[in-house]
Amino acid sequence: MNLKNMLILILSIVLIVLLYGKYAQAEGLQCDKSITCITIDRSKCLDEVCLEVSEKTTCDYSQAHVNGGYGWNAETKESCPPRIADVESNYCDYSSAHLYSGWGWDSVRKKSCPPNLVELEPEPEPEPVATNTCDYSNASNNNGWGWDPVNRKSCSPILDVGQDAEPEIKDLGDILVLLMGGQSNALNNQTKYDSSLDRGLDNMIVWTSYNGWQKADLCTYIWDNQWYPKAGGNCSNHIGFQIAKNLAMKNPSKTIALIPTGSAGMPISHWYDGRAGLKDFWGKAELALSNLDGKNDVDYIAFAQGESDAGNPKWLGDIYNLIKRTKDKNWFDGKFIVSETFKSDVNEQMQELRWDGNNDTDYVSASGLYTKDGVHWNAAAIRELGKRFAERF
Fold this sequence. Notes:
By secondary structure, the protein is α/β, with parallel strands linked by helices. It contains 8 helices and 18 strands. The longest helix is centred in the first third of the chain and has 21 residues, at 3-23.
């Protein structure tokens, strides 16, 4: 090919490209150099221009904000490229702005939109909840509890004791103090109560978490801030209560004062020096004694061992250490008795407490007793342990 023909070919190609870039039409799309390019389809526009949808298209952009700006042509079943006017504004989605401090998301630019682009709707205020809608018509059949049909929940018994309730205690006379300790078997979470078997006696008082010394009643007062019995109406049984009741029956001329403590699920190491179990055990005893006129020492300690020490070969040494350190306190020089567990092997070590030649240590057998769940004593077992503890004391 000579030079002349080559020049003619080159000029022809340039002319075709210029004409096509200006006037080409393809599937309703026009190339326009006046628009800043964001999307280039080089199969249709051979120059660096953008595609703008003509008015003749049937593209639906109602969901463009969640599809990167693209629309949908229902006739051709194809997507439509973003419209320039829309891209120059924004595709910010604020549907989840309330979860992101007002910020939205621009699915086209793939970046966050600042809160000041929209005015967030205020969160609706909660509807007022009706109060004083408790029905106590059947309270006598439900241990004093009522029912709220509006809020669909139980109502605490009317006999609930307030924070400022005054002790109903007068003329205590001679007092014997019982300190209860141990693991979950010392707390008896939600164990059955029988109103004919589990009522307190007139010569029983108990140290409560919020109301100080009160008449012992399993259905009225808050006994321990960690476990049951708590607020009025939670008629749950308690081994310390049963021990105190049996002591009260054996000593009708004396007042039995019970100080309940306990730490569920904790091994004996929880009562090492500086540990929370020991602080609770000694701390409640000292606080209760400081508020008991005419008495400043503990006569009996009952410790309800749990299953947390199963397989602990050092348990006996640990319990002896706890007994010795407690005996060193100026408020205890009495008898320390531990009760067996349902199945733990520490029961074998425990028998040494009876045969060690020390009259101030002993253990209570759990032979013939049953649990409610394979670990924790049922109500009948708690009552029987109360009798066995009192006999050993």
